[in-house]
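TICKET: design request
STATUS: open
ATTACHED STRUCTURE:
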């Protein structure tokens, strides 16, 4: 299996980005972990934005985009690769996780092991994403990244925001790269069906480093869906409302993008 799936940009300047749906542990990295095979699988399930590739499938089909086919436990493409730049590295969850969701150490990386993992997974992913943004800019003159995620209904120990009144939808923004008009439209439209917060419980949105804080033609907004809406977090199974929730959310997003 390829480490990531790329669906080329279609007839709109939009890239749908789904980085955390997979639970796959590439064989060459499995032995880096101190967990048993079953323990590692369970940790991957705990950390995954499970089913987000299906939840946001209508966006992928309409616009094209990126889907990571490896667990974020192995490499998290949403994190800065130098630990000194990544706040979550303090809890062992930088670009390469060394701690589990319960705080226990799960991997000890040598400098060579770290380089190999970054060179094999993280850097190729970002090179391809950057190239696709470049091609989108060349074709349309602008590019909007829809950074698609889900989040647990209950805060976890490692998370910076421990407020328990979590919304149905979180919109993560970057003041430089998120268009205010799009944010307003999405916020208003989603609030007709869901509770919505901005930058809570999670903040920010992905932008390739080549364009970060320098090129306003590259726009980005993060859309996080509370997992309680579409799945049972204890059994890791989809609930009866899955297709309905997926349809409503994706249709609302597509309708909101008519302003771009």
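STATUS: resolved
RESOLUTION: sequence designed for all positions
ATTACHED SEQUENCE:
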């Amino acid at each position: 299996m390829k480490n990531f799936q790329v669906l080329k940009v279609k007839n709109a300047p939009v890239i749908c980005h789904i980085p955390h749906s997979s639970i796959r542990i590439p064989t060459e990295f499995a032995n880096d972990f101190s967990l048993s095979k079953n323990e590692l699988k369970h940790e991957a399930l705990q950390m995954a934005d499970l089913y987000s590739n299906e939840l946001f499938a209508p966006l992928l089909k309409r616009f094209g985009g990126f889907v990571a086919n490896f667990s974020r436990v192995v490499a998290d493409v949403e994190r800065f690769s130098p630990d000194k730049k990544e706040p979550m590295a303090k809890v062992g969850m930088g670009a390469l996780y060394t701690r589990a969701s319960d705080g226990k150490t799960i991997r000890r990386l040598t400098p060579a092991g770290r380089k190999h993992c970054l060179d094999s997974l993280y850097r190729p992913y970002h090179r391809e994403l950057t190239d696709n943004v470049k091609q989108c800019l060349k074709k349309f003159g602008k590019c909007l990244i829809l950074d698609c995620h889900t989040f647990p209904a209950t805060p976890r120990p490692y998370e910076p925001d421990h407020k328990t009144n979590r919304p149905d939808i979180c919109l993560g923004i970057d003041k430089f790269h998120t268009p205010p008009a799009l944010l307003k439209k999405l916020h208003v439209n989603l609030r007709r069906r869901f509770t919505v917060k901005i930058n809570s419980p999670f903040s920010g949105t992905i932008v390739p480093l080549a364009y970060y804080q320098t090129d306003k033609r590259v726009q980005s907004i993060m859309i996080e869906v509370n997992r309680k809406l579409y799945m049972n977090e204890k059994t890791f199974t989809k609930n009866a409302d899955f297709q309905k929730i997926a349809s409503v959310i994706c249709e609302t997003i597509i309708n909101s993008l008519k302003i771009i």
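CLOSING REMARK: The beta strands are 4-7, 14-18, 65-68, 143-151, 169-172, 196-198, 218-226, 231-232, 237-238. The longest helix spans residues 111-140.
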